[in-house]
Design a protein that fits this description.
five-stranded antiparallel beta sheet; 39% helix; three-stranded antiparallel beta sheet; globular; alpha+beta
């Protein structure tokens, strides 16, 4: 076990090497006391089951897990590029070519996730990692769930919550399509579209009713094609949002789909 890579609510992540093969991995160490304290055992079991099963270049691999008296250890693919969140913090925002590449990779990965009857429910920059070539990978499946028709559990991160999760609380896989739109906007602008600082209530209202606006100093620099895709992804009614196939066929993403 080598240097620490990050700290989480329930434990820490370290760089590690598997002795027999010499393969370098990330080791997520979770304290059992924290699991009990926060009553997240079933959530952890779901995370392990889901992430071990999913096989896609855009989904961080979980190679296995083991545990001792005090801790659970998850053996994960190493993503040396770190969190997209940290990259966004340092660069403030990204250009359309880079954003288009990542949105394409994320949409493709979500196709695999949804095909396996899984809703991620917490797509955000903190849960997306970059490998050594800056390729995007969905990393955290702690809020994911196996879809049993419509869900009613309230979870996720405020800025990325879809309107239907705030109104009647009944939703399906299309909440991930909404989050894809929020992420695309945040990559291009540097902040989420409906965030009202210091007011949860106003943020809720903006998500449910607010229009999509762009800062005047940036608006001219964002193409009509990018704005069109964001508008489609952030349709207030889930039935109005495009399928992931339609997303990948959008003109804004066409150059990146051919690269994939």
């Amino acid at each position: 076990i080598g240097k620490p890579l990050g700290r989480g609510k329930f434990g820490n992540v370290y760089m590690a090497r598997e002795k027999a093969s010499g393969v370098v991995v990330a080791l997520k160490v979770i304290f059992k006391k924290q699991i009990e304290k926060h009553n997240v055992l079933s959530q952890l079991k779901d995370e392990i089951e889901i992430q071990t099963r999913l096989r896609h270049p855009g989904v961080l691999r979980m190679y296995g897990y083991f545990h001792d008296e005090k801790r659970v250890y998850l053996v994960l693919e190493l993503a040396p590029g770190g969190e997209l969140f940290k990259r966004l913090q340092s660069e403030k925002r990204f250009g359309e070519a880079q954003t288009g590449k990542w949105v394409t990779q994320l949409a493709s990965a979500l196709q695999c996730v949804h095909a396996n009857k899984v809703i991620h429910r917490d797509i955000k920059p903190e849960n997306l990692l970059l490998d050594g070539n800056s390729e995007l990978k969905i990393a955290d499946f702690g809020w994911s769930t196996v879809a049993k028709d419509k869900r009613q559990t309230f979870c996720g991160t405020l800025d990325y919550l879809a309107p239907e999760m705030l109104t009647h609380g009944v939703y399906d896989f299309r909440v991930d399509v909404w989050a894809l739109g929020i992420l695309m906007y945040e990559c291009l602008v540097g902040s989420p579209p409906f965030e009202v600082p210091d007011s949860v209530e106003e943020t809720h209202k903006a998500i449910q009713e607010g229009p999509i606006t762009y800062p005047p100093e940036l608006s001219m620099g964002i193409s009509s094609s990018a704005k069109d895709l964001i508008k489609k992804l952030l349709a207030k009614k889930p039935e109005d949002r495009p399928s992931l196939e339609e997303v990948l066929a959008h003109p804004f993403l066409a150059p990146h789909v051919s690269e994939a």
